[in-house]
């Protein structure tokens, strides 16, 4: 029976790949992030709260809370999902021209 006196070499001796960052062209600008943050608050108020908005967007509630925070960052994918829930084009969210109408409960005719 053979006995190994030393442990095997770890890996192949090559360096791990350097971490990559997203292209700046794919990121939202600071102004667009601010506008999405405002839109999150408006849409959440219109649909009944942050948890309901998270359910409609199919994201965790913590993601919506983080996006609404004053220093929270959002992604373009988040803005696309928010626009889908608000039923407006993404450009409306990013330009800050969102006007949300609260749902009407009961009709007086």
Structure commentary:
The protein is 47% helix and 0% strand. It is mostly helical and 109 residues long. It has a domain at 26-95: Orthogonal Bundle (434 Repressor (Amino-terminal Domain)). The termini are far apart. The model has no long low-confidence stretch (mean pLDDT 83).
Which CATH class of the domain at 26-95 applies here?
Mainly Alpha
Q: What does the main sheet amount to?
A: none
**CATH architecture label of the domain at 26-95:** Orthogonal Bundle
Mean of residue pLDDT?
Answer: 83
| Proportion of residues in extended strands | under 5%
What is the CA-based Rg, rounded? 23 Å
SSE arrangement, N to C: HHHHH
Question: Which regions contain 5 or more consecutive residues with pLDDT less than 50?
Answer: none
The computed structural class is: mainly alpha
